[in-house]
Amino acid sequence: MQYPVAPPTIQKPAGLLKVRVETLRYVLGAWSGPFPSMDSPQTLVLVFGASELGEREELFNRLAGEYPESQLIGCSTAGEIQQERIWDGSLMVAIVQFERTKVRHAHAMIERAKDSYTAGRELAAQLRAPETSLEELRAVFVLSCGTDVNGSELVRGLNARLPSHVVVTGGLAGDGDRFGETWVMANGRTSPGAAVAIGLYGDSVRISCGTQGGWDTAGFDSVVTSARGNMIYELDGKPALERYKEALGARAVELPASALEFPLEMKGDDGNPVLRTVLGIDASLQALVLGGEIPTGTRVTVMQASRDRLIFGAHVAGHAAFGEHQGPTLALTVSCVGRRLVLGERAHEEVAATLHRLPRGTQQVGFYAYGEVASAQDSRHAHLHNQTMTLTVLSEV
Hints:
Elements: E1 20-27, E2 30-31, E3 43-49, H1 57-66, E4 71-76, E5 80-82, E6 85-87, E7 91-97, E8 102-109, H2 116-127, E9 137-144, H3 151-161, E10 167-172, E11 184-186, E12 189-191, E13 194-201, E14 205-212, E15 216-228, E16 231-235, E17 238-239, H4 240-248, E18 264-267, E19 273-276, E20 278-282, E21 287-290, E22 299-304, H5 307-320, E23 330-336, H6 337-343, H7 347-357, E24 363-369, E25 371-375, E26 382-385, E27 389-396
Parallel strand pairs: 3-4, 9-10, 23-24
Antiparallel strand pairs: 1-2, 1-7, 3-7, 4-11, 5-6, 5-24, 8-13, 9-13, 10-25, 11-12, 14-27, 15-16, 15-22, 16-17, 16-21, 18-19, 18-22, 20-21, 23-27, 25-26
Helix pairs in contact: 2-3, 5-7
C-alpha cells in the first residue's frame, strides 16, 4: 500500500533540551550489546518480552543492577515491536533518559478482576502523592496483567483520580496467542497479577497520541439487552450468539476463530467509538466473551476486517500522533494481538506505517497487547480499546 510522503522533519533549534533513547534486545541467550551508561533518576527503562522469559529472574536482576536509580517497568507481550520489526521470544529494552522531565512509578496488585477499579485508583493516588505537584503531572503510561483483569474498570479507576489534563495511555500484557498467564514487571520484579504505571512530570515533556482501528462496518446494528462484566447474553432480546451468527453469515461456521475478524463497536462515555474484541463464545449460554465491558443498553455495530484498511488505520494513528516534537523522539506503540492475528504475515506493515508517519529519526518500541489504553483524538478521557493501533509520542523541549 502506498502512503503519502511524510512531512518534513522539524529541526531542533540550538539550545533546546532533548531525550536520549537507546535499545537492547535479549534473544537466543545473549544481549545484543553493552548496557548504555544512562542510569539516573530521570531515566525510564521499559521492558517488553515473551511470557516464557518472565521467570528468568537473572535477566531482570541484571537490568535492576545496571539501572539502580532508574524507573523500570515492563510486561509480557504477544510480540515485541522495534522500529519496523516484530519479534517473538525476546526481551525488548528501551532506555529513555530525560534531561528535565521527572519520572515516577506506581505499583498495585490485582489478585482478582474485581480488584481492577481499586488498583486504578491506587496507581493514580501514588502518582498524585503529596510531595508531587498535581500541576506538574503530564502523562501516565500504564501496564497491567492481561488476564484476570477488568481493563475497563482499571482505566475508570485511573480516570477517577487523575486530573483531566493528564494523558493516560498504555496496554494490557500479552501471552502470544495462547491467552494464558501474563506478567508485569516493576523495578526488576515480575508478577502475574499486577499493574504498574509511570508518571511524567514537568513543563519540558511533550506528549502526543494517536489511536485508530481501521475497521469497516458489517452493516449490522444491535442493542445489548443483557450483559454482565465482559459477557453479552442477549442482543435485541435474543440469545447473543444467535444474533452474532446472523451478522457473520457464512463465516459463522468458523467460530470462534472468525470472531477476531468481527469486533463490536460502541460509543464511549465521551461519544467516541470504542472497539471490543469477541474473544470467544459460550455455546451453553449462547453468550459472547469480550475483551472488555459493554454495558446493557448499549448500541453496538458489528465491524469487519480488511487488511488494507487495518494497515491504513495504523498510518492514520501515526499521522495523528505526529505532534510538534523537536529533536529526539520516542514512540511507545501498542497494538492489539487481534490485529496481528488478522494481518498475519502483513503485520509488520502496520508498524512500518506508523513509523513512516512519525518525525524522522523517531525510536519506535512497543508490543502487541490484550487491550490498549488511550484517549480518543478529541478527548483526554482514557478508554480501554481492543483491535486498535495506539501511539504515545514523547520528546522534550
